[in-house]
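Weekly structure sync, notes
Attendees: PL (lead), two postdocs, one rotation student
Agenda item 3: pending single-chain targets
PL asked that the sequence for the first pending target be pasted directly into the notes so everyone works from the same version. It is reproduced below exactly as submitted, 463 residues in total.
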Amino acid sequence: MKTDTIAAIATGMSNSGIGIVRISGPEAVETAEKVYRSKNGNKRLAEQKTHTVHYGYIYDGDEMIDEVMVLIMRGPNSFTAEDTVEIDCHGGMLVMKKILEAVLKNGARAAEPGEFTKRAFLNGRIDLTKAEAVMDLIQSENEYALKSSVNQLKGKIYDKIKELREKIIYEIAFIESALDDPEHISTEGYPDKLKVIVDDLLQELSEMIRTFDNGRIIKEGIQVVILGKPNAGKSSLLNKLLGEEKAIVTDVAGTTRDVLEQFINLDGIGIHIVDTAGIRDTEDIVEKIGVDRARDKARDADLIIYVVDSSQNLSEDDFKIMDLMSDKKSIILLNKSDLNTVISMEYMEEVCKDFKEDHVILNTSMTEESGLKELEETMKEMFIHGKIDINEEVTITNLRHKEALTESKDSLMLVKKSLLDEMPEDFYSIDLMNAYAALGRIIGEEVGEDLVNEIFSKFCMGK
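Predicted structure, written out during the meeting:
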């Protein structure tokens, strides 16, 4: 682990009322002192107590840069568990950059992305789940994601994983002790007892894994792509969902020639919604690029909303669109239901009978704004399994956590098989240890340097 002194701008890289330059490491206070001058010129930061605030000025040589407040937090009672100094300055980009440059000239080096939080983890200040929760908290786009991140930051996942690991390690210790000292520690009847314990552990792991479907939606939102032929009402639908005129709507087919991405909050669930160019064969080069992009977006979608002009018969282009969505969750909107329609729900259901994934067909009219409430309810029902109660349950939002939980569960299934096959006790111990290690990776007790570096490389600068 690097133990030098690092510095970075810790606030957003834009003009604002307040900016913060953060310094952390063994020489943090000494580095700050080289650029700081108190109002009366005789206060030394090195002589000040921890968790105190000092008013003064930052200088680069003889040039005064800004009037500031300086916060001193000595380790281990700081976020990084190291000596930390925060310079609160005016939030202009030029001012913050000049202060950071002065700090870097006087002994610190520029921090890597996430390096402050990484040091907090490596110094034992926080576990890996809390470190990941910091970034999730910053990136939260809805109330559910925010609450989930706060719960993780408070240690709910950490506490649960520690509890499970303690149960497993107790059994490992018993088996190892019995193998080492069979004269004094009997294993008679132990397989039956262990089977009950393993079944309970498997149930707890399964329940945690089951929360991931909701957890991913909470964290990332639903990726929704609107498809349809030109002039079917796709852009009108986007505008209705957004509650404002974001997409240009005309009677001219092919008005939308590229993808238009927007974010909406649907009762606390994030919806990343993409309006696409109408899919049809075209000789227009620009429109053709838009159609190709629409197809690419459809492949990555969680949900496809297929808008059909129900006043017109289906064409070859419609069947090409349906080929894109046959293995995706989809909602088919028979739009323009206020006109004389030629496509019925029964007919559309017959056309879509071979779809591999769930699909729902609704009648809508963008002109009369009918069917929109049913569309919103259907989107939630298709993705939210059961009730989301962030306050009560541990919700898994991180794929890395799910994979480790699954690996731990698989190892416990091997323990159960060994019990059923009446294998020797040392077989139980091996798989129990694998289950224990897999859970350890979640909280950072069984991880290598490469994984740690990968996780923190995704953090924003200054955090």
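Discussion points:
- The two ends are 17 Å apart (CA to CA).
- Residues 246-258 have pLDDT under 50 and may be disordered.
Action: rotation student to compare against the earlier draft before next sync.
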